[in-house]
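Students often ask why inverse folding is considered easier than folding. One informal answer: many sequences map to the same fold, so there is more than one right answer. In these notes we will look at a single instance of the problem. The structure comes first.
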């Protein structure tokens, strides 16, 4: 009898410890999850908007390298809003579909020594609209692969492989049919370009739709700021994604670069921004801000790197020489284009720019992020803006 009691007691104690262990772990797990959620929701920066411009909804470039297109189309949609022409959702992939054959022709003519990547610049969008027109997103979404998000991985590999195969010239020369085959691949993956389409009860061609939008494409100009080019003159910006060779950028000192953007936003104009997003302190996902702390990431200890920022940090004072150095040593490259749509201040008065990204809305600030003045000064490679957004004194100096 005693041994039975001991047995049942032992079973009870084992059961008790198991239940206690599970309960404690659940409590700790829940506490840990709540702690994680608190950290996720906590932001050391509190932003107050100073100026904003009208813009359309955030889109998603998904698994493509077409930020140049998404940023510039967003920019043009804001221009249509600014001009009182209403809200449009224009097709980014119509531009991409028309740009690829031109890249291919250049790649073949340069014997494979030209850029055939997915990247590009803001002027590429304007150039394609000039030559090919534009259509609404509802007319051409460029997805012909039974997926609900853009994905150009396989297509890019097939196109590049085709071009490299053509250049091997197993038949000793390049035939006149290669471009036809190349376009057929684009049609398979992206869909055929519409010659005519119906929109809001009217029949258009891509060019007649462009004409009805009424955007003067010659009103838009691009700026950069590096002393390797003469100031206050136009230059060819030497970056890989500037593949068209023909388009020029106005080169101005760093202070003018910032003054143009500030003047634009304050007067209702937005900016198509191109720059570097490779810094550790650029976080467009969970934190939603980009900063250049006074102490560089690589100079921090592991403990300092792992520490969460609890309040706005002191940032580096950026000089033109610093811009030049990072551009020349490739720590600043043209990684990504986004749409700059506002100016804000944090709780200690530091200026930040509100940026509309093209990575979807499942991010901090629903797809927008805040870029500090220091980050802008150091990491801006170039941008596009309406010429009327340029301060009058600078406009006269550049003879715009």
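Output (designed amino acids):
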């Amino acid at each position: 009898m005693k041994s039975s009691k001991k047995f049942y007691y032992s079973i009870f104690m084992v059961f008790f410890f198991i239940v206690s262990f599970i309960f404690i772990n659940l409590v700790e797990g829940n506490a840990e999850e709540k702690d994680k959620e608190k950290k996720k929701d906590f932001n050391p920066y509190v932003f107050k908007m100073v100026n904003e411009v009208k813009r359309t909804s955030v889109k998603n470039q998904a698994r493509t390298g077409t930020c140049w297109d998404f940023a510039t189309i967003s920019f043009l949609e804001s221009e249509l809003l600014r001009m009182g022409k209403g809200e449009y959702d224009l097709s980014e992939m119509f531009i991409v579909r028309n740009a690829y054959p031109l890249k291919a022709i250049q790649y073949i003519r340069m014997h494979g020594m030209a850029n055939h990547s997915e990247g590009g610049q803001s002027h590429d969008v304007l150039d394609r609209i000039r030559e090919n027109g534009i259509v609404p997103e509802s007319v051409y979404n460029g997805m012909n692969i039974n997926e609900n998000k853009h994905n150009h991985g396989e297509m890019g590999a097939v196109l590049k492989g085709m071009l490299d195969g053509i250049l091997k010239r197993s038949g000793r020369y390049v035939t006149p049919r290669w471009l036809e085959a190349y376009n057929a691949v684009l049609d398979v993956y992206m869909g055929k370009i519409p010659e005519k389409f119906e929109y809001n009860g009217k029949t258009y061609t891509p060019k007649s739709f462009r004409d009805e939008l009424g955007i003067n494409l010659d009103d838009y100009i691009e700026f950069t700021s590096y002393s390797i080019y003469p100031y206050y003159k136009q230059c060819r910006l030497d970056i890989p994604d500037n593949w068209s060779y023909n388009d020029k950028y106005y080169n101005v000192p760093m202070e003018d670069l910032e003054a143009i953007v500030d003047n634009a936003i304050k007067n209702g104009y937005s900016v198509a921004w191109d720059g570097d997003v490779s810094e550790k302190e650029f976080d467009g996902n969970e934190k939603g801000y980009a900063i250049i702390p006074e102490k560089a990431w690589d100079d921090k200890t592991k403990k300092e790197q792992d520490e969460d920022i609890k309040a706005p940090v002191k940032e580096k004072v950026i000089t033109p020489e610093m811009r030049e150095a990072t551009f020349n040593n490739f720590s600043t490259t043209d990684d990504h284009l986004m749409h700059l749509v506002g100016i804000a201040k944090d709780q200690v008065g530091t200026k930040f720019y509100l940026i509309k990204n093209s990575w979807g809305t499942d991010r901090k600030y629903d797809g927008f992020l805040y870029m500090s003045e220091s980050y802008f000064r150091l990491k801006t490679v170039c941008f596009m803006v309406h010429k009327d957004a340029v301060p009058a004194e600078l406009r006269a100096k550049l003879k715009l």
